[in-house]
């Protein structure tokens, strides 16, 4: 390939391919963060109650649980954008490996903790190394195109389902090992630190993922494309910056066009950093993330309450078993259903159908609580009801979150995706950090003795407020979905926009006669390829 001069349009480049090997490596890295989501949930209320010397149904326990769970998200608020910017400047691989290194150290510190200050410090440290989810999304966004985007981001949902399966098993079955295997663990450090074994096992998984990433992960962002401008600031519209590898920072080929609607979005982005559509999608993602985090926490607290208080009197093992049912629902949705739904109905409809399922199944929680009375219904039916709820709930999340990720990826195609995903994750972290403690306080007030049905008020208030936010943002979501479906239906090879490209990769101020002349052969070749591919595409 000839060197890129100021008046030379680059040749056609090859788009980096999204292979099964790449998906496996990114999934292994992403799995660590997914396990971390549910590792703590089966035993967090028991651990806090032990450290505080109070019963699990005490409102103070619920408050501290909410703060402890939300602390990770509070750290994400400040660190996700930092890691996204770090990945844009130094590359995706270094950011991922540093994050995995933190995932090895923080859980061990957490498991060794014997007091609330220690576990809070370990939780904060874990939250500091929180950038991997956003960076892996960015890597997929750079490698995926409109033909395999649903598969790529759906893979994150499959990985998350395995995380939901493994996390509750580790957190629910491996706590207090001296009780279920006294011959091995009695009198050891695992006896004095009953929550160490699940965290040590998780740290071992993180170390294995670090080795896989260090050996097999390839950098998706070339040095020539790091931290360069991608918006033409002259106000003419959006120009993608190219690199010597034939790709731009978003992973698109040099001849990949700017759609007319994207160009208009780029013009708007010259006066404000993010277009309105992207802001709406991120706000929607925040509402969904906060609602899901608070719902999971409320579920843990409510099922651990005594039966006479409207709960199920569950311990870590029972909570972990029920959560495994949710992992199965998410896995089935991602593998067999979700990609087909997106292609047939579009992202907007899939998102709102998934949200409708989520709201419906959680609204019926008072009916599941009826089955908690083992004297009337036996021990089996309470597990059946809650397992069904978790199955449908997580299947719906398998429609919601991958769709939100895809829409963010589409709406940020003209921006630095590492920074965008970092900011989106930070905004979502704000919601995940605020929602759980707020609704834990609400639960502590509503579930006081003398209010037999008060335990269900927080979950219904949560669903109602989150639904209102989604309805308010429906217009922006519909626009982003429409743009995505238009991209799926149009040919990939089109005419390149004629813009100046300087040798350092910076954006030009407009096409000169020389650059237009230099672009003519590339335009002719692109037109010829499009004409030759037209019969195949139409067929």
Can you give a write-up of this model?
It is a single chain. This protein is an all-alpha fold. The protein has 22 helices and no strands. The protein has helices spanning 20-39, 44-52, 59-90, 92-112, 116-128, 132-143, 149-173, 177-180, 182-185, 189-192, 196-216, 260-269, 276-304, 316-345, 347-363, 365-370, 374-377, 380-411, 417-446, 457-472, 474-489, 513-538. The longest helix has 32 residues, at 59-90. It is globular, with a radius of gyration of 25 Å.
Compact summary:
With 539 residues, the protein is mainly alpha-helical.
List keywords for this structure.
single chain, 539 residues, globular, disordered N terminus, mainly alpha, 0% strand
Furnish the topology, listing elements before pairings:
Blueprint: H1 20-39, H2 44-52, H3 59-90, H4 92-112, H5 116-128, H6 132-143, H7 149-173, H8 177-180, H9 182-185, H10 189-192, H11 196-216, H12 260-269, H13 276-304, H14 316-345, H15 347-363, H16 365-370, H17 374-377, H18 380-411, H19 417-446, H20 457-472, H21 474-489, H22 513-538
Helix pairs in contact: 1-6, 1-7, 1-11, 2-3, 3-4, 3-5, 3-19, 4-5, 4-6, 4-11, 6-19, 7-11, 7-14, 7-18, 13-18, 13-19, 13-20, 13-21, 14-15, 14-18, 15-18, 15-20, 19-20
């Amino acid at each position: 390939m000839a060197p890129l001069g100021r008046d030379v349009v680059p040749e056609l480049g090859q788009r980096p391919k999204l292979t099964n090997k790449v998906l496996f490596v990114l999934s292994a890295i992403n799995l660590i963060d997914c396990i971390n989501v549910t590792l703590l949930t089966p035993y967090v209320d028991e651990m806090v109650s032990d450290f505080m010397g109070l019963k699990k149904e005490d409102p103070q326990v619920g408050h501290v649980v909410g703060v402890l769970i939300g602390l990770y998200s509070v750290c994400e608020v400040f660190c996700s954008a930092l890691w996204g910017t770090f990945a844009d400047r130094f590359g995706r691989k270094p950011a991922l490996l540093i994050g995995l290194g933190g995932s090895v150290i923080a859980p061990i510190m957490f498991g060794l903790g014997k007091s609330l200050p220690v576990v809070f410090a370990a939780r904060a440290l874990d939250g500091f190394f929180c950038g991997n989810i956003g960076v892996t999304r960015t890597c997929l966004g750079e490698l995926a195109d409109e033909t395999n985007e649903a598969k790529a981001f759906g893979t994150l949902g499959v990985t998350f389902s395995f995380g939901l399966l493994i996390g509750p098993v580790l957190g629910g079955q491996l706590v207090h090992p001296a009780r279920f295997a006294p011959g091995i663990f009695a009198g050891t450090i695992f006896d004095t630190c009953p929550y160490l074994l699940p965290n040590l096992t998780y740290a071992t998984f993180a170390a294995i993922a670090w080795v896989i990433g260090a050996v097999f992960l390839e950098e998706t962002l070339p040095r020539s494309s790091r931290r360069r401008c991608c918006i033409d600031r002259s106000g003419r519209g959006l120009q993608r910056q190219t690199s010597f590898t034939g790709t731009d920072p978003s992973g698109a080929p040099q001849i990949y066009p700017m759609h007319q609607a994207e160009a208009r979005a780029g013009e708007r982005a010259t006066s404000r950093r993010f277009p309105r559509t992207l802001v709406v999608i991120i706000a929607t993602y925040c509402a969904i993330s906060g609602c899901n985090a608070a719902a999971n926490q409320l579920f843990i607290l409510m099922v651990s309450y005594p039966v006479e208080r409207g709960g199920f009197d569950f311990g870590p093992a029972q909570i972990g078993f029920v959560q495994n049912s949710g992992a199965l629902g998410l896995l089935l949705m991602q593998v067999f259903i979700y990609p087909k739904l997106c292609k047939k109905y579009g992202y907007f409809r899939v998102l709102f159908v998934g949200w409708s399922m989520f709201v419906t199944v959680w609204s019926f929680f008072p009916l599941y609580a009826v089955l908690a009375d083992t004297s009337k219904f036996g021990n089996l039916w309470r597990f059946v009801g809650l397992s069904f709820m978790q199955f449908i709930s997580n299947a719906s999340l398998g429609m919601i979150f991958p769709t939100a990720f895809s829409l963010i990826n589409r709406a940020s195609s003209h921006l630095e995706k590492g920074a965008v995903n970092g900011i989106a994750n930070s905004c979502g972290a704000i919601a995940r950090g605020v929602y759980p403690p707020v609704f834990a306080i609400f639960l502590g007030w509503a579930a006081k003795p003398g209010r037999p049905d008060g335990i269900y008020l927080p979950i219904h208030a949560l669903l109602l407020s989150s639904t209102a936010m989604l309805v308010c943002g429906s217009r922006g979501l519909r626009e982003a979905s429409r743009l995505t479906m238009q991209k799926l239906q149009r040919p990939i090879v089109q005419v390149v926009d004629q813009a100046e490209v300087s040798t350092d990769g910076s954006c030009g101020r407009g096409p000169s006669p020389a650059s237009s002349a230099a672009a003519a052969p590339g335009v002719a070749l692109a037109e010829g390829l499009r004409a030759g591919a037209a019969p195949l595409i139409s067929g």
